[in-house]
Amino acid sequence: MGPRFGNTSALGMAAVTAVFGAALFQAAPSAAAKGDPRIVGGAVTSISAVPYQVALVYDARFGDDDFARQFCGGTLITRRIVQTAAHCIFDGDPDGPLSDPMDTNDLDVVVGRTTLSGSGGARLNVIGGIIDSGYVPETSDFDAAWLALAADAPAPAAPVLIAGSGETALWAPGALATTSGWGTTSEGGAASDTLKAATVAIVRDATCGSLGGLYADFNAANMVCAGVLAGGVDACQGDSGGPLVAPGLVGPAPVERLVGVTSWGDGCARSNAPGVYTRIAGSDYNPFAQNVVDQLEADFALPDAGPVYGEGATPPSQVASPPKKKRKCRKGKRLKRGKCVKKKREKGKRKRR
Fold first, then answer.
1. Residue 347 lies in a domain
2. CA dist 212 to 173, 206, 314, 334, Å?
3. How many structural domains is the chain composed of?
4. Which of 58, 98, 112, 113 has the fewest CB atoms within 10 Å distance of its CB?
C-alpha cells in the first residue's frame, strides 16, 4: 500500500521545514506510504468538463514533455492556489538526495489542458506552498498540501469550491462523485496522456474501516472512501492529489463541490478495495483550508479570492421538481388525456308524466 503518485523517486517536500517561498515549502500548523492512484475503468474526458483539474509536473529543465514529467494531480480552489496531497511533494528532490525537500523551482503546474503532451492551457511556476504538518507518511493521515502559483490560471481553467459544512449531503454514503486525472489505466500499467474521469460512490466509513488489511489505517476523521466495491473503477498511480468532486444544485443551477483529495488505496480497482481520499470537506479541514489560503494570499500578495467553501448546494435527487401547472381549456371545451376537446352536449332527462 502506498500513496497514489507517479515517479516516486523524483519529488517531495519536508513537512518539518519552516522555510517558505522560493527555496522550500512551509509546514502548516496542522489540522491535525500507501498504494499509488490513476484512473481505471473510466472514460476520456476534457478539461472543459473538469476545468479545476491540474497536473503537477517537474520543471521543463528536466527534459521531455509535460506528459512524461507528470507525477501527480491537483485541484484549483482559487485561480492562484492548488489543493493537492502532501505525499506528492513530501520528499524526493529531483536534483538532490531523495530525502531532501523539494525546491519550488523544481515544480510546475499545468492548467487548462486535456492532453498533456499537447498545447493549450498554461504551465505555471510554483512560488510557494504549505503542507499540513499533521501529515503522517506511514498512515497517510492529514494528506493535504497547497501550492501558490506565480500567475492566475487562465481560462478554460476554473476553480471549484470545497463543499461547505452545510453541504454534507452531497457526499453522504452512496452519493456519486467523479475522480479524474492522467494516471495509469490499470494497476502497474501505462499512464494516459489524455485526461480521464470515472464515477465512484461514497462508501460508508464503517464499511471502509472493516475491510481489513491496509484499511486498518483508515481514519474517518480525515479520510473518506469512494469506489466500486465490486472492483473495476478507481483512481490509480499518478492520480494522487487530484479531485473527488460531487455534483449538486443551488436552486436550479448545477454546481460541483470538492469533497476529497486522491490519497491512497490497496492497488487499483480491486474488489473490496475502494480508493481513500483526504476528507477535505470534513470538519478537520473547515476552516483550516480557508486559513491556509488566506496565509498564502497574505505571504505572496495574492488577490483575495474570498471563501473557498460553498454553501446552499443540495444533491440533485433532493431537489423537488416544480409542480406541473394544470392545463385549462377555453369555454366550451374540456380536458381529455391532456388535450382540450369539445364538450359533448348533455341530453336532458324526460319528465315522467
1. no
2. 19, 11, 33, 66
3. 1
4. 98
Q: Take residue 251 and report the three cell numbers written for it.
A: 436552486
* 312 Rama sector, left if φ>0, alpha if ψ -120 to 50, beta otherwise: left
Give the pLDDT band (50/70/90) at residue 28.
confident
Of the candidates 122, 126, 99, 133, the residue with the CA atom closest to the CA atom of residue 23? 126
Residue given cell 453541504 in the structure block: 167
Cell of 45: 474526458
Q: In the 8-state DSSP scheme, what is residue 165?
A: T
Q: How far apart are CA 191 and CA 208, in angstroms?
A: 27
Global pTM? 0.83
- Host domain of residue 80: 2-299
For residue 305, being part of any structural domain is answered with: no
CATH number for position 99: 2.40.10.10
Query: What are 222-254's pLDDT values in tens digits?
Result: 999 999 999 998 899 899 999 999 999 999 999
Positions marked catalytic: 87, 143, 240
Within-domain flag for 348: no
Burial of 265 (0-12, 13-18, 19+ CB in 10 A): buried
pLDDT digits over 93-129, tens only? 788 888 777 789 899 999 999 999 999 999 999 999 9
Helix (H, G, I), strand (E, B) or coil at 350: coil
* 266 inside domain: yes
CA–CA distance, 36 with 123 (Å, rounded to integer): 24
Q: Which amino acid is present at 188?
A: G
9 is written with which cell numbers?
A: 523517486
Question: How far apart (Å, rounded) are the C-alpha atoms in residues 33 and 4?
Answer: 9
d(CA 164, CA 42): 27
Grid coordinates of 212: 481489513
Measure the CA–CA gap between 41 and 197, rounded to whole angstroms: 9
